[in-house]
User: What shape does this take?
Amino acid sequence: MAGQTVGVFRAWWNGQQIEIKPGATVRLPGTQNKTEIAGGTGFRYQQYQVGQFKCTPVLVKGYSLAAFQPGDEGELQVMADTGQQWVFPDAYILDAPDLADSGGNMPLTFNMNTYKELLS
Assistant: This one.
């Protein structure tokens, strides 16, 4: 029996669904391992790593480009087609997007520090 894996994500920024292209990535906030070399030996230590969601929304008719400017924290929700959902109440947009013609692509990077995961 074949199992199902993640195929696509859907996303909502401050309660409004954003239309994103396939290829989005999500990384939960938490610790990461770092290496410190001393005396010919590698030592491991841990450091905090901010969470990240990278996606490429398309700007559709009726949407405002200004809604995607960096500013205060907001709520980002990401849902996989397999039912997993992550809610990031303190997400923020890292950089203003560059809007491209011929499809309205505007790559975005969100960063965040906290999350709640919901499974269905």
Notes: The chain is about 0% helix and 50% strand. The chain has a mean pLDDT of 94. The radius of gyration is 17 Å. Residues 31 and 48 are 4 Å apart (CA to CA).
